Amino acid sequence: GSIPEVAFCVGSSLGFSEALRGKARGLFSLGPQTLSHEIARLVLAEQLYRSFSVLRGHPYHHEG
């Protein structure tokens, strides 16, 4: 079936509490580095764009 709703949450530099992490259906990390909220949102948007592009058959990057 389809997923009716998806929410992406950006945690603090300390991450999320175990209680909150336990409520999530899925977790992923943008990497081991600590990013500002603004940069984390930008990286997430770019990764989602690339993922959907690949799923639709578009090339991952431009080749010279």
Descriptive report:
- This protein is mainly α and 64 residues long.
- The protein has one domain (1-64).
- Helix content is 39%, strand content 0%.
- The protein is built from 2 helices and no strands.
- It is flat and about 40 Å long.
- The N and C termini lie far apart (40 Å).
- The model has no long low-confidence stretch (mean pLDDT 87).
Summarize the structure.
The protein is mainly α.
Query: Order of helices and strands, N to C?
Result: HH
- Summarize model confidence as the mean pLDDT: 87
| Rg from alpha-carbon coordinates | 15 Å
Strand content: under 5%
Number of strands: 0
Q: What spatial form do the alpha-carbon principal axes imply? A: flat
Helix content: 25-40%
What's the N-to-C terminus distance? 40 Å
**How many helices in DSSP terms?**
2
Low-confidence stretches: none
- Structural domain tally: 1
Structural class: mainly alpha
Main sheet summary: none
